[in-house]
Amino acid sequence: MLEAHNVTKIFRGRRSASPVIAVDEVSVQAGPGEFVAIVGESGSGKSTLARMLLDLIPATSGSVLLDGHDITAMNRTDKRGYRRQVQAVPAGPGRVAEPAQARRSRDRRGDPAAWDRDRQRHPRQGGADPRTGGDVAGRPILGSLPARAQRGQRQRVLIARALALDPRIIIADEAVSALDASVKAGVLRVMVDLKDRLGVGFVFITHDLPVVKKVADRVYVMHRGKVVEEGPKDRIFDAPKDPYTRTLLAAAPSLTPTT
């Protein structure tokens, strides 16, 4: 179980500027096989929370824990283990082979044949064919540059890249926000399949409520750095309690076509 327990993040202003409380005593949790959505408008603190969960920035107060172990108390070896188990799928692409290369370095004295099998297996699990992989020039996807792949295929490759270290939790920050509807649906199907088939948990950071309604198991609603509401997806959408949640739902595009 990945947990944030009463985490706060304060960014100190320069000189006379006032400190900014980006995340204010937030608690969330996610486990393998769960699709947890964290929703809210821009500036609500979602991405800052994601960076704390990924151990990219430290919390000002509170704690981030994996299976009850506080990441601030972990030694270097434990931290490496944490980062293998909690991976990221960002909104923008990077080089597709970096985690796989890190794993190959770690397993250099292992079974080369097993490495080659994994090298092909992870892209397929992410929905990308390692031989073509959406590369418009027809070159292999592993090690290729992001500009050579179509946008939806890039996101599939980012998912495959995260899978290279066999994580238990993947944190996806606005991972489908820039995709058109049909491509977005395909990437979401990949994520849901991984959750159901491999038991990978997802923490899905988004402002896209129609997407959340389709894929999430549980939802946290953030507003001005705080979690104002949380609960099972159906309860959040059918009977929201907080006025801010009701405002978000009222402003979201309708999922039901009108005639």
Task: Outline the structure in words.
The protein is of the alpha/beta class. The protein has a domain at 2-94 and 168-251: 3-Layer(aba) Sandwich (Rossmann fold). It is 36% helix and 24% strand. The chain has nine helices and ten strands. It has helices spanning 46-53, 76-85, 98-106, 112-125, 151-163, 181-198, 209-215, 233-238, 243-251; strands at 2-11, 20-30, 35-39, 61-66, 69-70, 86-89, 169-173, 201-206, 218-223, 226-232. The chain has a six-stranded mixed beta sheet, with helices on both faces. The protein has a four-stranded antiparallel beta sheet with strand order 2-1-4-5, with helices on one face. α4 crosses α5 (151-163) and α5 runs parallel beside α6. The longest helix is centred in the C-terminal third of the chain and has 18 residues, at 181-198. Residues 94-123 and 125-139 have low confidence and may be disordered.
